[in-house]
Design brief:
heterodimer, A: 201 residues, alpha/beta, 5 helices, B: 159 residues, Nucleotidyltransferase, domain 5, 5-stranded mixed β-sheet, 4 helices, elongated, transmembrane transporter activity (chain B), ExbD (chain B), transport (chain B), transmembrane helix (chain B), transmembrane (chain B)
């Protein structure tokens, strides 16, 4: 009697099994990166420290009411106009002497902000304001800052500020990263983001 | 030397598919490694608002998530319809945030502990009262970097 070979296991269905698993993982995979509006909260204030006095003309007060209506300096405003109004306020440059702002292109209204470095946007909301209205307003105000920063970055460095920030986060950025950081800092200094989030009333 | 003579059948040999499982397995392992299973199953409605000034949040090791929104239907009997906070897998109250942040900090590498970002994943219908409470709590514990997580899109779609 000749020795019989052990019968070979048929591996033909292996591919099917692997495919099945593959498809399962393909479907469940979500290669998602979250995105959102980055903000920094103010540190908890010390009770003893007096809040610095800010002139009224340097404050751009935005109140988001329960129903999503927006009051800017106590006057009603449409959300569509908010971005332009915020830009006009920040870019006003009504200051004189040491407060003068050479790069501002605003109307230089003495009743509005002196200098972007002095201008503060105060964002307030009620407890019953919907989160989506709040984010909408937050977005418009951040957009106002970004657009002004873009303008200055284009004037000084020939490209957009938002692109510069993106490049800075890109680990494969081919250019000089230290120089880029300096440039970003400079733009941030021209239009510092002074967006205060007051506690709700 | 007829031993080495080829048998003269003119058929093309069938293409071997023996390496197919290997290829598929390779793909399979790739996806298994890349897949991040959702570590938090959401117990709340979580429809994020839209915004177009968003920045990417891609340093995963720096992010901790705080969810808030109305409990989903299946939990409404137990927890009501008022918006609530969810931390990890559980419903939480505002007071739990402190503990949560401390725990998250402890679980990260030391050099990253001060750079943590709190991603606020809040449902768009939530009242700001709750969000403000969360923010207040984060300020108390000095977790000042926040990210209002939003979907990329026109803000008009929020209405």
């Amino acid at each position: 009697m000749g020795r019989r070979k052990a019968p070979e296991v048929n591996a033909g269905s292996m591919a099917d099994i692997a495919f099945l698993l593959l498809i399962f993982f393909l479907v469940t995979t979500t290669i998602e990166t979250d995105s959102g509006i980055n903000r920094k909260l103010p540190p908890m204030d010390d009770e003893k420290v007096e809040p610095p006095k800010i002139k009224e003309r340097n404050i751009f007060q935005v109140l988001v009411r329960d129903d999503g209506e927006i009051l800017v300096n106590e006057e009603q405003m449409d959300i569509a106009d908010l971005r332009e109004a915020a830009k006009k306020f920040l870019d006003n440059g009504g200051g004189k002497g040491s407060l003068a702002c050479e790069y501002c292109q605003g109307p230089r209204d003495p009743k509005s902000s002196d200098n972007p470095k002095k201008a503060v946007i105060s964002l307030q909301n009620n407890r019953k304001t919907k989160y989506k209205s709040y984010i909408t307003v937050q977005n418009e105000l951040v957009a106002a800052y970004n657009e002004l920063r873009n303008r200055e970055a284009k004037r000084l460095f020939g490209r957009e500020y938002t692109q510069m920030v993106k490049d800075f986060d890109n680990p494969d950025y081919p250019g000089n990263i230290d120089k880029l950081e300096e440039e970003i800092k400079l733009i941030k200094k021209l239009f510092p983001q002074k967006l205060s989030e007051a506690e709700p009333k | 030397m007829s031993k080495f003579k080829k048998k003269g059948d003119g058929d093309l040999p069938a293409i071997s598919t023996a390496s197919l499982p290997d290829i598929v397995f390779m793909l399979l392992f790739f996806f298994m490694v890349v897949t991040v299973m959702r570590d938090n199953s959401l117990k709340i409605a979580n429809e994020l608002p839209f915004a177009d000034q968003v920045e990417k949040l891609d340093k995963k090791e720096l992010v901790m998530y705080v969810y808030a929104g109305k409990p989903s239907e299946r939990y409404q009997k137990q927890y009501g319809t008022e918006a609530r906070i969810q931390l990890n897998d559980k419903f939480a109250s505002v007071n739990d945030i402190r503990k949560f942040v401390l725990e998250e900090r402890r679980s990260r590498r030391e050099e990253l502990q001060n750079k943590l970002i709190t991603a606020l994943k809040v449902d768009k219908e939530t009242n700001m009262g709750l969000v403000s409470d969360i923010k207040q709590e984060l300020r108390k514990i000095d977790a000042l970097k926040v990210n209002y997580t939003a979907r990329d899109g026109e803000v008009k779609m929020n209405q």
